[in-house]
Amino acid sequence: VGVLGAGQLGRMLALAGAPLGITCRFLDPSESTCAAAFGEHVSSEYDDSGAIERFCGEVDVATFEFENVPAETARAVGERIPMRPGAESLERTQDRLSERAFVRDAGARVAAHARVDDADSLDAAISEIGLPALLKTRRFGYDGKGQVLLHEPSDVDAGRQLAGRQPCILEAFVEFEREVSIIVVRAEDGACATFPMTENLHAGGILRASIAPAADSGGTGDEARRIGETIAERLGHIGALCVELFETARGLLVNEIAPRVHNSGHWTIDGARASQFENHLRAVCGWPLGPSEAIAPSVMLNLIGEAPAASDILSADPAARVHLYGKSARPGRKLGHLTVVDEDREALARRVRALAGLPGVHRESALAAAERATVS
Ligand SMILES: Nc1ncnc2c1ncn2[C@@H]1O[C@H](COP(=O)(O)OP(=O)(O)O)[C@@H](O)[C@H]1O
Ligand SMILES: [Mg+2]
């Protein structure tokens, strides 16, 4: 399987593929990538046609772990070998404005928003949407990058600077009750393996902790599943797809679509019967999908900016599942994650609390996740 991008998602794809006899080859412009230890790495810019040729040789099918690969690269690869998911999934989700139009067409709701093409159009957008609001670049945002929160008129200067550099959208600030996500893996024949809804805790725009399955009293999980499967179907998507949602007093709003395996599904490696990574590869290869049920309640904690030694994590909880990505430390960088899986919710919460003080774990989010994990 050829994989465009070679970060931790590519690494976890390769790790999931190994027992199935699947080997991965990566195309990624970085010199050193954390996936390269688990597959051949073609180190090149995405627009180098010779490198694309080399990447495609002996590869049966291609996929991506990074949705900002240039559409032309995806097209060039797709002309040589099957590309799954296809161009539609990439093109619809690379731009926040067209993504929101697509979501509305699919019958789901999004927050009120307006396009901001340049600094001068910001004022009109603010009169339409009001404050507080988030100004987001239309393309290339991740982990809260390319966003400015506008609270009051005095913040507008920072907004004008961002909007002067790149096309943006201004989006109403949503007073959500919680953030959830749904991961759907869709096979070529339309069959879906949909994982239980996950609750996600962010700080500073970065995912810090996930709780799965998310507590679900009012049928929210069923609605999230319907939204996710409808979006996957409308894209003709093959492989994994994540829909991030805000749960509000008035129902679910779609925040964004990631047409790939997703951080909020990392718990599935240890907490579900067949992980998002395995199921993505099965879908891409045209194989039957595996079961997506949770084995037991799980909490995933991201390790960001710094990562403890595995031995220190295991001293805090010998049963914690440790995933270190082999990346060098840098502020804000995702370096690994931990998953705690426990049938007993009180024990789960206790174990998560014991990990909350580790370097790289966001303490408040971990404590909040422990609390949330006791609710079914
Ligand atoms: N309209 C909004 N209202 C409130 N919080 C938001 C809004 N948009 C984003 N956020 C917060 O910022 C996080 C990151 O924003 P998101 O749009 O998902 O960008 P990214 O591509 O960086 O993940 C979200 O998960 C959420 O916590
Ligand atoms: Mg997001």
Summed up, what is this model?
Helix content is 32%, strand content 26%. With 376 residues, the chain is an alpha+beta fold.
Write the layout of secondary structure elements.
Elements: E1 2-4, H1 8-17, E2 24-28, E3 39-43, H2 49-56, E4 62-64, H3 71-80, H4 87-93, H5 96-105, E5 113-116, H6 122-129, E6 133-137, E7 147-150, H7 156-165, E8 168-172, E9 178-186, E10 192-194, E11 198-203, E12 206-212, H8 220-235, E13 239-248, E14 251-258, H9 268-271, H10 276-285, E15 298-304, H11 310-316, E16 321-324, E17 334-341, H12 345-355, H13 363-373
Parallel strand pairs: 1-2, 1-4, 2-3
Antiparallel strand pairs: 5-8, 6-7, 6-8, 9-10, 9-11, 9-13, 11-12, 12-15, 13-14, 15-17, 16-17
Helix pairs in contact: 1-10, 2-3, 12-13
The structure holds adenosine-5'-diphosphate (ADP) and magnesium ion (MG).
